[in-house]
Write a structure and sequence with these properties.
It is a single chain. With 375 residues, this protein is of the alpha/beta class. It folds into two domains: 202 residues, FAD/NAD(P)-binding domain (3-Layer(bba) Sandwich), CATH 3.50.50; 144 residues, 2-Layer Sandwich (D-Amino Acid Oxidase, Chain A, domain 2). Helices cover 31% and strands 25% of the residues. It is built from ten helices and 19 strands. The chain has an eight-stranded mixed beta sheet with strand order 5-6-4-14-15-16-13-17, with helices on both faces. A six-stranded mixed beta sheet has the order 8-2-1-12-19-18, sandwiched between helices. It starts with 8 loop residues before the first strand and ends in a 17-residue tail after the last helix.
Length: 375
């Protein structure tokens, strides 16, 4: 794209949603520009753990389940393609997951979760405590102590967020996508039902079409266009342990908390859910709580040092559905935000259906429940 030409689409937000959309549009012949208020891919997309729960497109009926399932189906293909195009391994591994319960309430929730997955024909197996200890020797102490119930999800996968973002950004660049970091959208120009420009701290930018994909910050931008949403920042704090070798091989889940083993021995532990505005600081209380959980589940971590801790701001929504679609009153402007804990997981599917909508095709999934401006 030459410096003087106007791109087919300007995307405001260089996280996993914005980069995935840019990648998908560019692969279908569109010229694309991406801007971000800070470094590319350094907000919630970078901060998460990269867990990809299993899904089944053949049985998914609810549009949110279909979006999740479409994304899950695409991930292996995207990961292989990105590795071929960029040489970067994004860490996609079909490692499987264990879901654990230590209290009566957790057991009931876990049984209901298993029943729901079976209805969707997603493979899930209840394990005896002896089977848990056999599958993951690091859980032997837990299995002979507090553990009350456990299920195996062989279809659960993971990837390394920073590597996936690096691969996406490099692949976009190779396809001619222009990426501008530290370029903050400060306002918009529009008339006669069309957006005509985005004002930024480095000047105005123009395109044929526009998409806001700025995560937790999208609500503030949409407000300037008179569009109200329920997007809100939800802080999630994380802890990183460093081990010489991975102490276990599967993702461990207990309620909303999880432990994710990386190939290099690191173990990610997360995550809190806090309404703290746009404050990305960590708190001693939350970090201690996460570390204690990890050491309770996996005694081998009691001797492992904590290498790092951080927080990210997930874009929550009031009804649990992201906002994906055309902005009300603007026929060339779109939005994709509010994916909460599932932004990384649902990014390929979001990119595909929004690319279809932006290029005038019928989206593969009914986007009505994701309507922008629904409240």
């Amino acid at each position: 794209m030459s410096a003087s030409s106007v791109p087919d689409c300007l995307i405001v937000g260089g996280g996993v949603i914005g980069l995935s959309l840019a990648y998908e549009l560019a692969n279908h012949g569109a010229t694309v520009e991406v801007i971000d208020r800070g470094p590319i891919g350094r907000e919630a997309s970078w901060a998460g753990a990269g867990i990809l729960p299993p899904a089944n497109l053949a049985t998914a009926i609810d549009p949110l389940d279909r979006l999740r399932a479409l994304s899950h189906q695409l991930y292996r293909e995207w990961s292989d393609r990105l590795r071929e195009e960029t040489g970067i391994d994004n860490g996609y591994r079909e490692c499987g997951g264990l879901y654990l319960a230590r209290s009566v309430g957790e057991v009931a929730s876990l049984h209901a979760f298993a029943a729901m997955l079976r209805e969707l024909e997603i493979e899930i197996e209840r394990l005896s405590l002896a089977e848990v200890a056999e599958m993951e020797p690091a859980l032997r102490e837990l299995a002979t102590g507090e553990l009350e119930a456990a299920y195996s999800l062989p279809g659960e996968a993971q990837l390394r967020n920073p590597d996936h973002l690096r691969a996406l950004a490099l692949a976009c660049g190779q396809l001619g996508v222009q990426i501008r970091s530290n370029c903050e959208a400060t306002g918009f120009d529009y008339s006669n039902g069309r957006m005509t420009g985005v004002r930024t701290n480095t000047g105005s930018l123009h395109a044929d079409r526009y998409c806001l994909a700025s995560g937790a910050w999208t609500q503030q931008l949409l407000k300037q266009l008179g569009v109200t949403t329920g997007i809100m920042p939800i802080r999630g704090q994380m802890v990183l342990f460093k081990c010489d070798t991975p102490p276990f091989s599967r993702v461990l889940n207990e309620g909303p908390r999880y432990l994710v083993p990386r190939d290099d021995g690191r173990v990610l532990v997360g995550s809190t859910e806090e309404e703290a505005g746009f404050d990305k600081s960590t708190t001693e209380e939350a970090i201690d709580e996460l570390a204690a959980l990890a050491r309770q589940l996996v005694p081998a971590l009691r001797a492992a040092p904590i290498e790092n801790s951080w927080a990210g701001l997930r874009p929550g929504s009031f009804d649990g559905f992201p906002y994906i679609g055309q902005m009300p009153g603007l026929d060339n402007a779109f939005a994709a935000a509010g994916h909460y804990r599932s932004g990384l997981h649902m990014s390929p599917g979001t990119a595909v259906v929004l690319r279809q909508l932006i290029l005038g095709e019928e989206p593969a999934i009914d986007l009505t429940p994701f309507r922008v401006g629904r409240g």
